[in-house]
Amino acid sequence: MVSCAGVFFICANLSWALALRPIAPASPPPTIYQTASSIPDPPPQLEPFKPTFFDDVLLSIFRWTLQRQSGVSIPHLQGFDGMMAELHELRRTKGTDELERVSLQTMTALAGPIPFLYRVLFVQSDEADGPSANRNSYPTAYALAWFAKYLLPFLVGEMTLTSTSTTITTAHNETDNTDIFNTGIGGGLLVERCRVLEGSNCKGICAKMCKVPTERFFAERWGMPLSMEPNFETGSCQLRFGVVPLPLEEDATIPSGCLGRCPAAGEGGCD
Q1: Which pTM was predicted?
Q2: Regarding predicted confidence, which is higher, 63 or 171?
Q3: What is d(CA 191, CA 182) in angstroms, rounded to the nearest whole number?
């Protein structure tokens, strides 16, 4: 049996390996448009995401939980497309605020006691730093980004670990005549082509089923702020763990109205 000391040693070395691993800079902020309908469609996806058996299992569990929380089920449509159809039906019949509630309840149900354990181990109450100050927040933000990269492709597609900064700086090491790259603080994650946005073509589903409830979930349940920045022009989304997001109504990158490709565009919109 591996001792506690051995487990600690392995985890410590893994943490250092992850911390020292070079990571890409975060993607730049998306172009700001006055209305969603003026945003051009993303270019065609040359290599669509190919889910593994593990992805299919996770999707089935997530969809089943979503159905129980929403009361909406379209059983004759299978897989990811079926889940997108159910989300559109929920949005059409009950509105985007219900999307947010159902999504938050689904994530809470699936996470179980894990957020509570995380808060006990890594979050402390500190009046100087606010009610939810993370102990050693950079490693914990990096760890959350790392786990999300390998657990969530079934929902959003391929992801790349990034910094939370959009710039890379370099310094010259005179000792061995090499360049030292500083990518800023880790904890970023770039969704290269979001499956939810691609599958729904809906700004309302993106914002109220994914962005807002996920930000709330990590802030309220984990004590870790998270900023999600969808780019409707490219289909990507930049996540930044440890960064407080703007309120949706103040976020200029989420314009009013429907995307031109949105199925709700002819139904009065989905805001």
Answers
A1: 0.81
A2: 63
A3: 22
